[in-house]
Amino acid sequence: MNIYAIIILATIAIDFILDLTSNFLNLKSLSKKLPDEFEEVYDEETYAKSQEYTKVRTKFGFLTGGFDLAVVLGFWFSGGFNWLDEIVRAWGYGELVTGLLYIGILIIAKTIVNLPFSIYSTFVIEERFGFNKTTAKTFVLDLVKGLGLSLLIGTPLLAGILWFFMYAGDLAWLYAWGAVTAFTLIMQYVAPTWIMPLFNKFTPLEEGELRTAIEDYTEKVDFPLQGLFVIDGSKRSSKSNAFFTGFGKNKRVALYDTLIENHTNDELVAVLAHEIGHYKKKHIIKGMVMSILQTGVMFFLLSIFLNAEGLFEAFYMENMSVYAGLIFFGMLYAPIDMILSVFMQILSRKHEFEADTFAAETTGEPEDMVSTLKKLSKDNLSNLTPHWFYVWLNYSHPPVLERIRSIRCEG
Fold first, then answer.
1. Is residue 149 assigned to a domain?
2. Which family does it belong to (predicted)?
3. Is-catalytic flag, 257?
4. Does 109 score more than 80 pLDDT?
5. Which of 70, 82, 256, 359 is most buried, judged by most C-beta within 10 A?
6. Is 381 exposed, middle or buried (0-12, 13-18, 19+ CB in 10 A)?
7. Could you tell me the pLDDT band of residue 196, with boundaries at 50, 70 and 90?
8. Is 313 a catalytic residue?
9. Cβ distance 134 to 237 under 8 Å?
């Protein structure tokens, strides 16, 4: 076992231990006493249900995480990567096509292996807690559409990356970085109108009191409202959400139909104000810039390690190749990705606080945002008392109690 294998195994072990520890602490932090702040929103039964939901999802995460780890290690140490490489090479295609087939087979195999867990999560766990609205037909169609888009969009992108590292020389990482950056920007522009409607129906918010209230607010904060839509989230889940996506003329603000059903007009304006806060504070642009820089660092490091013989020896490979190196480097890069992920989560939570503050200040009604957060936590059976270590590792949004305190402090 060489240094590459040791680094990768150590990273996998550390990640697994951190995940187990944070989840264990999170379960221990569950409090039987409902926080006073939520006494008017939760009843005893709903609060107990939210805690049970956290327990069930956590235990299911233990199962899926342990299974994934066993599969990866089993495939690795049984020589599976080399075995598959020999099979694909024997088909006699060129290096580029061989690489696409090799990576494609691994992705499809992972999808198939994880499919039973996805089915159980949707049709057993989410069903048990009253969330699931997905039919078997919708589930299958989502899967087919996802795979179809991966082939249609992902294959050319992957082919381009492989080609650059096969034939473009020392500057391959720079060309690949440029290609992925261009792809990301294009997808941000076209996804709201071309891709997202493949999975959900976006209906323009009809005229009425809600639309008038929203238009009055957007005019007040000078936000160019190009698209305000209702998304049929209820076709998959009873959970509520809202999001802002796209840029330029393709900006879209989408409110889930479940959100509209469960909230007052003032609360919905507060939700929209939060999403507009992300736009006004340039969080979307900042996030994209950070992501692009991360990608550049990753490709640069890839160019350094791609031809490292020891990396291929660690996976018992008889032949070196760009496509296999891409996968192995992804595992070697995991420690950096883990550290960056923690910092990105911290930044994301900071942005959420800022968007909350923007909503509270510009609507002039902080309690509308507070009541919205309370209802959302109840509707989604959120954990009201998560452990700080679990939050630090996993939360892109601050815990709801922290958000409420921050809003009231700023307000």
1. yes
2. Belongs to the peptidase M48 family.
3. no
4. yes
5. 359
6. buried
7. confident
8. no
9. yes
Q: Cα–Cα distance between 259 and 240 in angstroms, integer?
A: 5
Choose the catalytic residue: 85, 126, 267, 275. 275
Q: For position 108, what pLDDT does the model report?
A: 93
Is the model's pTM score more than 0.85? yes
Q: What is the mean pLDDT of residues 149-156?
A: 91
Q: Which of 356, 368, 379, 402 is catalytic?
A: 356
Are 350 and 334 a contacting pair, CB within 8 Å? no
What is the tally of structural domains in the chain?
A: 1
Tokens 């990396």 belong to residue: 311
Question: What is the tens place of the pLDDT at every residue in 84-93?
Answer: 999 999 999 9
Phi, psi of 284 (to 5 degrees): -65, -45
Q: Is residue 232 part of a domain?
A: no
Six-digit token pair at 158? Answer: 């992957």
**156 domain-assigned:** yes
Per DSSP, what are the bridge partners of residue 130?
none
**146: nearest Cα among 179, 184, 186, 115:** 115
Per the structure, the complete domain to which residue 406 belongs is given by 1-179+261-411
Rounded to a whole number of angstroms, the distance between the first and last alpha carbons of the chain is 58
360-366 contacts, C-beta under 8 A, 24 or more apart = 360/270, 360/407, 360/410, 360/411, 361/410, 361/411, 362/217, 362/220, 362/221, 362/273, 362/277, 363/217, 363/266, 363/269, 363/270, 363/273, 365/266, 365/270, 366/407, 366/408, 366/410, 366/411
Place of tokens 């989408």: 254
**299 Cβ contact partners less than 8 Å away, ≥ 6 residues apart:** 173, 174, 176, 177, 180
As given in the structure block, the two tokens for residue 392 are 């630090």
Residue 241, φ and ψ in degrees, nearest 5: -165, 170
